[in-house]
Amino acid sequence: MEFIKSFLEPVKTDNGVVRFQIDGVNVSNMFYSIALYRSIQEFARTLNEPELSEILDKFSSIYSIKNLGIGVNSYFLERDVTNIRETVDEKKPMIGMKILLGELKHGQLRKSVSAKRNFFAHSGFLQEYTLIDVSEEKICVRWIEDKKREIERWIRDPERN
Questions:
Q1: CB 3.0 to 4.6 Å from 130: which of 73, 101, 111, 136, for a disulfide?
Q2: Strand order in the sheet with 139-143
Q3: Residue 142 contacts by C-beta under 8 Å, 6 or more apart in sequence?
Q4: d(CA 69, CA 71)
Q5: DSSP structural state of residue 5
Q6: Up-side HSE of residue 151: CA atoms within 13 Å toward CB?
Q7: Residues 6 or more apart whose Cβ sits within 8 Å of residue 19
Q8: How far is residue 71's CA from residue 155's CA, in Å, rounded to a whole number?
Q9: pTM for the whole thing?
Q10: Residue 99, SS3?
Q11: How far is the CA of 112 from the CAs of 24, 52, 72, 79, 159, in angstroms?
C-alpha cells in the first residue's frame, strides 16, 4: 500500500507537476488477487482435511462480503457440493474407494471440452481431476496429483491459454 501511495503522489518538475497514469481496473484486479491469495493461504492453514462440509464452510466465509465481497460464489460452491453429495448418495461408492468424480457420475470418464472453464464454473471440482474418497461419515475431495501444477497455473493466470 505504501508503495502504491508513493507512486500516486504527484512529482514536481521544472515544467510543472506530473502524475502517473494508473489503470484502475488493473490495480483493482491486483488487490483482488492479493486478497484471494491471502484468503486461500489462511484457508489452507486452517483446513484439517479436504472434506466437503469444511470446504463449504471455510470458502463461504472467505467469499463473504466481510472478506472478499463475492458472496455469490458461495451459492455456486453450495450447488456443486450438493451435487457431489447427491451423486455419492445415489451411486453409493464403496467406502475407502477413491474414484474420479466423472467416473462416479457417469460410469466412465468424460473429458471436458474446456477443462479450465469447467474448473472455474464448478468451484474447482473438475470431473476428470477431482478424486472422491468416501468414508463412513465424510466425503473428501482432492485433485489428482499430476494435475495440480496445471490447476495452479489456471488460478495464477486465469486469462492465459
A1: 101
A2: 98-100, 130-134, 139-143
A3: 50, 130, 131, 133
A4: 6
A5: H
A6: 17
A7: 8, 10, 11
A8: 19
A9: 0.69
A10: strand
A11: 35, 22, 24, 19, 18
